Amino acid sequence: MSTLLTTVRLRGERGVRAEEPTLPTAAAPGAANGERSIYDCRNATNLARAVLVRSEGDAPTGDVVVNRAYDGLGDTRQYYRDVHARNSIDGAGLPLDGYVHRGRRYNNAFWDGRQMVFGDGDGEVFTDFTASLDVIAHELTHGVTEFTAALEYRNQSGALNESISDVFGSLVKQWKAGQTADQADWLIGTEVFTPGIEADALRSMKAPGTAYDNELLGKDPQPGHMDDYVQLPDTEEGDNGGVHINSGIPNRAFYLAASGIGGRSWEAPGAIWYAALLASGAQDDFATFAATTVAQAATLYGESSSEQAAVREAWAGVGITVGAAAGPTSTSTPRSVDAVAALTSAGVAAAVPSGEPVVGGLAPVVDPRDTVLAALTAEVAALSARLDQVIERLSR
């Protein structure tokens, strides 16, 4: 209930910020290169009252969570700087603020449009969320997407938004470890589950649908091919058209491209995907993005190059054909997955804001017969509305 209520509020805040006009970044003196600041919420939820505990260049503290957040922000910043010549999230040195120990037993980590926020987990299902570098990089990459393609968080453009974060989350992890494509595990969030939970990760880019399968969480619902594309309504109850589910399709396409090209995935494959992100529009779907990656591969490595061929074959491997002249087409007709369709008809809400890898990745596997959760979700919405009214009265 606490996590659901919080995510409802965060979605509203993020939506308002997304509608605000984008202004040039005005970096403060000494804060033009993504300088880091880590704040301790001390288990409270009001970020404004958090205490600054570590700034850029400070020595490590005695709190491992603070240090992991600091290092994770730094590693992601350094990756984008060294590999893609990008200065912080917005490309103009946006300072990186991280907030740790948010709330009590809070099962999430998220980018809220301005800063990174980390929960400690409940210690039963999830551990501290600073433990996973690819989760940190995933969330910060939502910021990169926000300042570039601004992919709408709905249907296929929303699933692309999620996939882009998984792609670069995985690349940051591989870059940090110095792994080649064949050495990487291609798993997202392997560290966030407690030892008592039988699950490999939140998602698998290599084999979508295999990250977890247990009695508590159910089975990973992600498809890896357009044959299994999940048709969901563009509503909160439908996960905004299945953004956390269908992202498995472009995820696998990137894995296939990286494996086909070989070597270090952040080099040619990462360069192609990054260039495609910069060249994409807010409403691009899978087929459009596929065509953009093929075009960018030609721009970077030459028409008919081995890199371009690998990218084209990768998309074909997930059911999307990019022709030499005719453009992209899907080789199959998307169909609904019965269990997920039943979940939607039962009114169960996947109540998560954009960019939240944990709740968003797992909520759709809730037993569709569990109508109790649907009732709780409705109650959360009512509580949120009442809370908004109270806050409005207090602010007068």
Automatic annotation (TrEMBL):
Subcellular location per the Swiss-Prot or TrEMBL entry: Secreted
Domain Peptidase M4 residue range list: 69-146
GO cellular component, one term: extracellular region
Keywords associated with the record: Hydrolase, Metal-binding, Metalloprotease, Protease, Secreted, Zinc
The Peptidase M4 C-terminal domain, residue ranges: 149-320
Entries under PANTHER family matching the protein: NEUTRAL METALLOPROTEINASE, PTHR43579
Name by which UniProt lists this protein: Neutral metalloproteinase
Organism: Nakamurella flava
